[in-house]
Amino acid sequence: MKSFVRDTVAITEKELKQLRRDPVSLILTIMFPILLIGIFIVIVSAFSATTHNVPVVVADLDGTPASNALLNELTKSRFIHVTQLVQTEDQAYQAVANAQAIGAIIIPQGFGAALATGNAFVIVSTDNSKLTSSTFVSAAVNQGAQDLVNQVSLEGGVNFGLKLAPIEVITRPLSGRPPSGDPILPGFLGMIAILGGFDDIVNAISRERERGTFPRLTLSPVSLFAVYSGKMFATVVLTILRTALMLVIFSLYGLVIRGSLILIFLTTILIAVFTLSLGLTMSTRIRGSATLTVLEIAMTFPLFTLAGTTNSPLLLAPGGRAIADSLPWTYGNDALRRLIYLGAGLNAIAGDLIILLVSSLILMPIAISLSKRTM
Amino acid sequence: MSVATFLSDSIAVAENEFRQFRRNRSAILISLVVLPLFFTVSLGAGQGGTGTTFSPTANIPIGFVDNDNSVASLRLWQTLTSSPDFHNLVQSYDEQAAIAELGTKRIYAVIVVPKGFQSDLENGNQARVILYTDDSEPGVSDQIQSTLTSYVQNFDPNAEVQPHLSQLQRQSVAGVGIITKGAVFAGFNIGLTTVLAIVQIFAGFYEIAGGISREREDGTYARLMVSPIPIGSIVLGKTMFDVLLTLIRTFTVLGISVYGYGAKPNTDLFTLLALSLIVALVTMGIGFVAASLKLGQRAVVIIEFFLILFLFAFSGLIIDINLLVGASQIVGSLLPFTYAFDALKRTILLGRPLLSLTFDLEYLIGSILASYAIALVLLHISRERLIR
């Protein structure tokens, strides 16, 4: 037992020494978190921007005070920018078809009169190939119409046959935090653990095989189990460093971490160890380090969706949800979210951690056994 | 040098590439099977295809606490439970106990109908419904809130049975109807635009830049460079090889998307193939530039990863470029892939003829020419250094 621990420590030291001597891998370890957070900031700042200038054209076919009031509300919108007022409905549609505008808003003839009876309508045509901008146009028109309704309802004596929505929904988030893109940050931490784990396996096995040092290592008087344990401990050390770096970035970004730091580190370590176990299994079949990296990166991208990094797996189609439920990473990301965002304790995430641990315990012996066969 | 010699040299290089490719089983598997299959299936499973109509909120367990116990609150409960969007509504009698369940994964939201709900409605006041959500699940809170709002803003407490409202009617504000027009995309069409581009970028970059790096590491690249074959023939030969792989991958992605997930592209096969090739050629051009920088295989793979991440953020894949803020919008507008995604969306989703997208095509072809020209110059310099 004593020699096993000594061998494991020796292999761990060797791995860390090798990483220190490999500037590309070292930079990669630091760059992954920074790049991922950079991308998050770009996306979130776009979504949470207080103003957007989505170009729209408006055809006011009514020309009454009521339609003017709506037009006024639309021009005040923080999301759309009325670039042109056109004379006909066709001109408005044509502007969208020619990509001059993302939306066309048509206030039909008789709008003012219909407003008095509560039967008014507006037509919104959007370029739905602009997936996010088109929703901003719809939301802006909805808001403009709502503001118009509120405005005329508040004006004493003028009823216009309008009514407010009968019921208001007041949302109270469990975390008590204001709505933001922050809930996806814990998932990013999970992705860092996954990417790091995959990168470690490429460094640990495939590159050694390519250099011819792996057979030498296995022929040395060190048990194969100690070799793998050593490599795993190196991953644990690196995961702790990566997690610490991510948590520092989170803090700088202003995210308040509510859960226990020890549990956060434990979760990322278990995610990395599971990834390492899977990578070890794959590396027994795929020998080239570049091929293995390509395959692992190709696997990583779908995980952004399927393992609940950017969106909850609850919102996936049934097929996707079934895949998500069968991926141990989903449970890791889930545990991280509840730890960091809600401040959950061990009892709340124990099930997730057990799934990760058991998956690793199943995969690791398979990897060692397959690895022995290939020697 | 005559054109015939130039072409025969290019074909010889392409043949050599194919021979090497044929001998590498894992390269065949990754390039032609794993990448197209993996990306298409994973995105298709996540989004659902034509046969899959699903409401994101339908199966999410949600608690419902009725503190009013009135006819109106009962009708709200009936409206929600009979809707296609709330199949997993669990009635609870204790508000605090229900809220305590949040964050445990047993329920993800609690709808509370407060006391006075019916009297507010009777008196013509705006009634309130309180929605507690587990906001640690990204997107779930917003989804439940918007679905619930769409039901309650058209709720009529006097009607025993609520009229069935279409999606459009539910989006309308009380008093002003909003008729939404615009193309509605069938099945997996949006997914197809993403997968088609990403697969070509992912595979194309690795095949060109990674292939040259592998040759460099094996020592065969130097031999190829000092051979009497012109650089142009080497580049053209490798391009011809990858063009064929691009076509095979396009058919694979299209096959899975159309037959597996019911995608119905609003354009013809020629346009799809042409756009796929253009995306691949842009990627190959950048791949040649990367290869001329003498990068190792590992560095190529890392750059590839960063490139794809970069595209996700800046080229309109996740968020439209016109919504990007400040410098990121300028970066996005400079990327040729932004125009490639735009062209794919406009043809596949909206059915625009390819030739009508003049600016997109001009920018893409310009980028291809520029990147190939830069790569040729850099490769030429590297050959000169090698010979000297």
Tell me what the structure shows.
Chain A is built from 14 helices and 5 strands. Chain A has a 4-stranded mixed beta sheet, with helices on both faces. The longest helix of chain A is centred in the middle third of the chain and has 30 residues, at 224-253. Chain A is α/β, with parallel strands linked by helices. In chain A, helix 9 (224-253) crosses helix 10 and helix 10 (261-283) runs parallel beside helix 14 (346-374). Mean pLDDT of chain A is 84; it is low at 156-162. Chain A folds into 2 domains: 2-44 and 180-374, no CATH class; 52-154, abc type-2 transporter like fold, CATH 3.40.1710.10. Chain B is of the alpha/beta class. Chain B has 2 domains: 3-50 and 186-387, no CATH class; 62-171, 3-Layer(aba) Sandwich (abc type-2 transporter like fold), CATH 3.40.1710.10. Chain B is 64% helix and 7% strand. Chain B has a 4-stranded mixed beta sheet with strand order 2-1-3-4. Chains A and B meet through helix 2, strand 4, helix 6, strand 5 and helix 7 of A and helix 2, strand 4, helix 6, strand 5 and helix 8 of B. Strand 5 (167-173) of chain A pairs parallel with strand 4 of chain B.
Which features would summarize this protein structure in a list?
heterodimer, A: 375 residues, alpha/beta, abc type-2 transporter like fold, 2 domains, 4-stranded mixed sheet, 14 helices, 5 strands, 67% helix, elongated, B: 388 residues
